[in-house]
Amino acid sequence: MRTAVVVVTLAVLVLAPRAAHAQISFDARRLGMGGVSLGRDGNASRYNPAYRAVKNRSGGGTGAPKVTIPVPLGLYSFFRQHPINQLTHDPTFNPDSAGFNPVALLNLILSPPIFLDLRKPAAPTNNVEFTIGKNQLIMNLGASRVLIPDQTFGLGTSGRLLDLGSGIGPFHISVMGFVHYDVGFTLDSALRSVLKDTVPVRSDSSYFIITDALAQTGVSPTVSYAGRVWHPTAMGDSGAPGGPNANADDGVYLGAAAHYYFGATYARGVGPAGFTVGNPIFGVAPTVLFDGIVHTSNGPNGHGVGADVGVAWISGPLEVGVGANDIGAQLTWSDTKIRRIQYDPNGDSISTTILANHVQSTTKLPISYIANAALRMGTGTTVGGDVFNAGRGTVIHLGAEQRYGPFAVRGGVARDERKKLQFGFGGGLRMGAFGLDLGVWTHSNTLADQRAMTMATSISVY
User: Where does residue 24 fall: left (phi above 0), alpha (psi -120 to 50 degrees), or beta otherwise?
Assistant: First the structure.
C-alpha cells in the first residue's frame, strides 16, 4: 500500500497546479534563464489574454517549441537510490524506521526529484537536546532551528485545470475548471522563542499555532476576446505601405475574458492549536488547546463573476505586455454551515457545535498579474524579464539568451517569494526541428531557507 501511495503522490506533485514559488517548469531553457520566458509562451500567454492573439515566433531564434519533453534524470537517480520494490522498507517513507527523517520527507514533497540535484539543502538531523526538571523544560533543536519560521508560512495556489471550448475569429467560448487553496500557519511569539531561541517553557503559559486554511473549486463558463486593435503601416522607399521595415506582428493587442463561476465545494478553517502548561510544568499533564471555526458549503451553491484583462504592444524587436486574471472574482455561497470544533478537556474528546446553518458566505479568488518585456537584438541576443504574482507574493525574473548558429548560451537571475536571489545558467543545441537544452538553477523550495542547485534537461520539438 505504501508503495502505491508514494508513486501516486509523486504523480500528483508533478501534475498538480502550483504556486509560483513551487512551480516546476519542465523547460530547461526557462530554468537556465532564471525562470523567465523570452518567447510568447509560459506565464505570458497564461496570465495575459492579449497574447492569445499574438502568433508565436517560428524562426530559429527564441520561438517557443510546440512541445517540451523533460528528461527526468532526477527520477532515474532517485529510484536507483530508492527502488520501487523496496519503498515499503525504505527509511525515507517508513515512520517506524530509526532513520526516518520527517524534514527530509517534507523537502522531497516540496521539491520533487524530477531533475538532477547538484546540491541538496542539508536536512537537519534528528538529534535534539532536552533539559528537563520538575519545573523546567528547555528544548535545543540544534540544526533544526533553521526550520522554525519567523513569519507566516504555508502553501497555496490558484490554478485552472481545464479550458475546453472553441471560437470564431477573435472570440472564444469555453468552460474551465478552477481550484484555489491557501493554507497558512503562524507560530505565536512564545512558541517561536521556545523552539528557535532555546527559551525555557514557562509555567501557566499557552503555546500554539494559528491556522488559516481555505479551499474552493468549481467550473467557470467563459467568453473571451483577443485581437489586434492597432497595426502601424510601414512605408517603403516609394511611399507605398508594406516596405522592408514592415513587421507582421507589430501593433497593439487587447484581450479580455468574462467568467461566471459555479462553485462546487468550499471549506475554511481558522483557529489555534497547541497546549497550556500548568504550575509546576510537569505537575499535571499539559492541557490541549484546540479551538477552530470551520465554514463548509452544503453542496455546490457558489456563484460569482470575474474578469481577465491584458494588453500587449509589439514594435519590431521590442514587446511589452501587462495582464491580470480573476479581477473582482468573489463567490457567494448561498448555503453554508458554520461549526466550532474544540477540544473538551473534561471529556477528553473533540466536541462540535453548529453555530449557524444555511447561511451565506463569501470567498475571493486572488488576483494574478504579470508584466513582461523582451528585446530581440539583431546580434542573436535576446533579453527580457517579468514581474509575476499569483496571489502569494511577487516574483521577479530577468534573463538573456545569446545564440551562435545552432548553439545557445543562457543566464538569468530571479527574486523569489521569499525575497531571496536565485540564479540560473545553461545552454542548448538546436538541430532542425529538435533541440536539446540544459539549465542549472538555484531555488529555495524546501523547508529551510537554504539554496539548492538543480540541473534540468529537456528536448524541444519546434
Answer: beta
Task: Supply 91's cell numbers.
Answer: 527509511
Burial of 81 (0-12, 13-18, 19+ CB in 10 A): exposed
Return the sign of the alpha-carbon dihedral for residues 108, 112, 116, 117: negative
Cα–Cα distance between 294 and 25 in angstroms, integer? 35
Instruction: State how far the Cα of 414 lies from the Cα of 391, in Å rounded to an integer.
Output: 18
Number of domains in the chain: 1
Q: Which domain holds residue 375?
A: 2-461
Per-residue pLDDT tens for 368-383? 999 999 999 888 999 9
DSSP string, 342-353: EEETTTTEEEEE
In 3D space, the residue among 102, 44, 7, 23 whose CA is nearest the CA of residue 445 turns out to be 23
Query: Sign of torsion, CA 452 398 158 330?
Result: positive
Q: Kindly give the pairing relationship between strand 368-376 and strand 381-389.
A: antiparallel
| Digit-coded pLDDT (tens) for 267-313 | 999 999 998 888 888 777 788 889 999 999 999 999 999 999 999 99
Closest by CA to 421, choosing from 401, 395, 439, is: 395
- HSE value, Cβ hemisphere, 13 Å, CA-based, for 142: 9
